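User: Structure tokens for both sequences below?

Assistant:
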Amino acid sequence: MSQINLTADQILAFAVEALEDVKGDKITVLNVADHTDMMDYMVICTGTSKRHVHSLGQNVFEFLKQKGLQPLGTEGRDMGSDWVLVDLHDVVVHVMTEEARTFYDLEKLWDIKPEER
């Protein structure tokens, strides 16, 4: 499949849709474009278990591939991980267990008010 051009907003919408499709919880979107050149958006989502975290990350990866976007990569996709990262070029998705999300507190780290969705 050839790579198609999607805007950051389109990638964001597809990523959120993929998380919602597999019942991701507490989906938060941070607009980080003014803070880094690495990405425009960061999406943070909570899974109910390590298995759910894995499924959420896998669904984001596969859904975006079906839309014609080849993800740059992933981290933590093994079944025992409590944090999966999916790099979608202008959007980076973090899927975490509740415990990992509380511990790392990415929202506070970036100190950015989440966009309402």
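Moving on to the next sequence.
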Amino acid sequence: MNPELKARLDSLIQNNKIMVFMKGSKLMPQCGFSNNVVQIISTLGVPFETFDVLSDSEIRQGIKEYSDWPTIPQVYVNGQFVGGSDILIQMYQNGELQQMVEVALAS
């Protein structure tokens, strides 16, 4: 990964408490998995940002290398990679996601 791309990804992740790399936007998700993530985070009633990987092929490929995770969407909370749709569903169901988000927003 080139230094410019890493810097762009670092900036997006570090400057947003909750950052979602997804297909589409939070207002118009372009796949079911991305929609699941948007719905879960929206249920928490907290602010979050999204980046449409369909609009930038360099970030679409780069984020997979950055996180060492092969699929989209990817969720970051407080600068840390959390996972994708399945992991978010599981964390939401067992209460871990709510705790993680509360801690992130309080810091």
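User: Anything stand out in the second?

Assistant: The first strand starts at residue 18 and ends at 22.
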